[in-house]
């Protein structure tokens, strides 16, 4: 692993971790083992995704509530506009506020009719992420709201003007930060920051980093999300289909290289798409200089 300016210590760095709500008891155990392992690294927040079409509404809520109950972590609940009325969405946000959730990741979501089709808002629903952000801020002004950003453009954006106008609408509606879709080519991210700056948009933009736990699964996600998979990345995993141990080492090296290069180029915050698994993320955070300890972010009660 290359050295980076970080060798002076992790000063000023912040990380956050994204999880998805578990479907089965076994998945729930995996998730909680991961949370227990990552919690001592004192992430700025941990976020829990919301299934396409609102299919995980209950499970997202339960997972977020359990994090609040059993850990000292700050949970952020993802929420989309899909297939729900404004009243339904408002009541989800109200119920988060009631139990003490202070952060929502507000998204439009994907069309229920499938990717590649046009997003049709629910007739009584919010029609965009910006409308959702505005509604959350109106009802709960102190609620922190993160939104998405796309260094390679959202697949629906015909051009950068549309993409940046959309981001600007979310900022104008009150978004506090954007978290990016994952990417592997850091130049794309830096170019995106330049575009955002040039458009006069002032918003902290946190790079979303995905450790490649499983190359073909990551490639499938990337295709759906409109994120490019560079040839060199495929080359690095080539021939390792049956060799999980080497795959894991290569994945850690690839992710460390990406993150340390971003640090050298000025990034100070990272959002990790954990896929509910801790090992790779823990190793990369260790390379970032993060160590368990400091203010306890304990999950003692969760065991
Ligand atoms: P938006 O920012 O609202 O817009 C997406 C695109 O739509 C824009 O780039 C633009 O091209 C177009 N657009 C929007 N409004 C207009 C307009 N008025 N005129 C022209 N074009 C317009 N999905 C889930 O289902 N659950 C999750 O928990 C979840 N979490 C995510 C977390 C992050 C950090 C990211 C990056 C994505 C996440 N997604 C999640 C995926 C997301 O729901 C999809 O990418 C979805 O297609 C877009 O939602 P958005 O909020 O990113 O879209």
TrEMBL record:
Q: Which Gene3D superfamilies match?
A: 3.20.20.220
Q: Which family does it belong to?
A: Belongs to the methylenetetrahydrofolate reductase family.
InterPro entries assigned: FAD-linked_oxidoreductase-like, Mehydrof_redctse-like, MTHF_reductase_bac
Q: Which UniProt keywords apply?
A: Amino-acid biosynthesis, FAD, Flavoprotein, Methionine biosynthesis, NAD, Oxidoreductase
Catalytic activity annotation: (6S)-5-methyl-5,6,7,8-tetrahydrofolate + NAD(+) = (6R)-5,10-methylene-5,6,7,8-tetrahydrofolate + NADH + H(+)
- Cofactor list: FAD
Spell out the protein name for this chain.
Answer: Methylenetetrahydrofolate reductase
Protein EC? 1.5.1.54
| Domain of life according to the entry | Bacteria
Q: Which organism is it from?
A: Prosthecomicrobium pneumaticum
Gene Ontology terms, MF aspect: FAD binding; methylenetetrahydrofolate reductase (NADH) activity
> A cellular component term (GO) from this record?
cytosol
According to UniProt, this protein's pathway is: Amino-acid biosynthesis; L-methionine biosynthesis via de novo pathway; One-carbon metabolism; tetrahydrofolate interconversion
Record GO biological process? methionine biosynthetic process; tetrahydrofolate interconversion
